[in-house]
Amino acid sequence: MQQQKTRTDRSPFAIRNVKLFVAFRVLFNARFYYPVFTILFLDYGLTIEQFALLNTVWAITIVCAEVPSGALADLLGRKRLLVLTSALMIVELSVIAFIPITNITLVFWAFLINRILSGLAEAMASGADEAIAYDSLVAQGNPGHWPRVLSVQMRLKALAGIISMTVGALIYDPDVANHIFGWFGIVGTITQQNSMRYPIYLTLVLGLLALWTTTQMRESDSGPEHDKPPITLATIWKAGQLTLKAGIWILQTPFALAIILFGMMYDHVLRMVITLTSQYYRLIELPEASFGVIMAGMSLLGLIIPRIAEYMVQAFTPAQNTAWLALVTLLALIGLSWFVPYFGVLPMALVMIGLMLTAFFSSHYLNQITSSEQRATVLSFKGLAFNLAYGIIGILFALLMQQLRVKNQGIHDDWTAELIGDEAFRESLGWFPWYASLLIVALTLYCRYALRKTPEPTEES
Question: Which CATH architecture has domain 232-452?
Answer without folding.
Answer: Up-down Bundle (1.20)
